[in-house]
Amino acid sequence: MHFVVLKENINKALNIVSKTLSTKPQMPILSCLLLRAKEGKLQILSTNLELGIIYEIPVQIEKEGEIAIPGKLLADFIATLQTDKVEFEVETTKLTVKTKTTKASFTTANISEFPPFVESPKNQRKLAFNKIKETIIRTVFAASIDEARPILTGVKTTLSQGKMFMTATDGYRLSKEQVSLEDTKEDIEIILPAQSLSEIVRIAQEVKAEEISFAIIENKNQVVFTMPSVQIFTRLIDGEFPNTDKIIPQSFKTRVIIDKDVFSQAVKTTSLFARGAANIIKIKIEKNHLKLSANNPQIGEDEDSVEAKVEGEETEIAFNFRFLLDLLANFPGSEVVFESSGPLNPGVFKPKSEKINFLHIIMPVRVQD
To answer: Which GO biological-process labels does this protein carry (predicted)?
Structure first.
């Protein structure tokens, strides 16, 4: 294998692809990238067995071939080079990378150990990235990171009748959003890993994708997402997603409308005194304001008062402040509608504007007075 490539192109590709490499891989080969030079293109492949990426860039090929090489080292090395072009050449079991002033050799790995990629289906559905981007961002953060319940590490994704529905929950909170699409093909319902969806958004932003195509790979339990220069393969999660509709309250006793930024700042201030005290913030809903408080006997206590429009009963409820901050960091709109049916019932959060069909639920924390 022998080719010459623009440093700018390969540096961008390696930055994108190498971020998915495992830091503690199950197999040594998973810390490697596969470089495949063929028909005027260089394909750079990486996989962690859950997510696989193929990134393609144009190169000047002298000799076609493929090779596996430690990915992080190569990415870090290329990033340091001060040059326009970089030459790659394989000599026996070594890969030589050189410029006019620098020459380095890398030990290669056995390419037969690199996990195979399935062929991408040609018939794919197309989605406008600007339509789905925020919906993904506003749901993935509520998914679990605990592999003990794999189903909760995923996002239930349904396409039906020109709409996409996404739902994620870790058992303590729930994010749910609906967005209208132009897609009117057959209905599908799948569970996608939340981490894979986050990577898809990251990569789509880096390659400035306006459209994302995707297809389910039959009999492989995988989905492929395609955008300019890159294909992303991710496994599907098997199992039955919880019926989240039954935990969504259908009524409320108290309704609050509050400025998002003011509420967020109050939560941040109060949270300083909630750390080490189970991260609990109490919210007392009174006539025309909220009182946020936290108490840690070891460091002290804090109380913040925030103006709000309040309808219904006065009440008090407690939440894990980290869940509130996660929500507010991803919340659409400038005003938050917060509905409660009492201190032990789920808190419902949604935007005041009805243009965005987003709903978030946080389970309260039981506290002793």
So the answer is: DNA strand elongation involved in DNA replication
Q: What is the dihedral of CA 235, 128, 18, 87, to 10 degrees?
A: 130
CA distance readout (Å), 91 to 6, 62, 64, 108, 146:
21, 14, 13, 10, 45
Tens-digit pLDDT profile for residues 168-196:
999 999 999 999 988 768 889 999 999 99
Instruction: Check: pTM over 0.70? Answer yes or no.
Output: yes
Does residue 186 form part of some domain?
yes
In which domain, by residue range, is 202 found?
A: 126-244
Residue 355: CATH number of its domain: 3.10.150.10
Cβ contact 104:87 at 8 Å: no
Q: For 20-54, what is each residue's pLDDT tens digit?
A: 888 788 899 999 999 999 999 999 999 999 999 99
Query: Is residue 368 in some structural domain?
Result: no
> Is residue 119 a part of any domain in this protein?
no
Strands in 125-128's sheet, in edge-to-edge order, are 65-70, 32-38, 41-47, 51-58, 230-235, 222-227, 211-217, 125-128
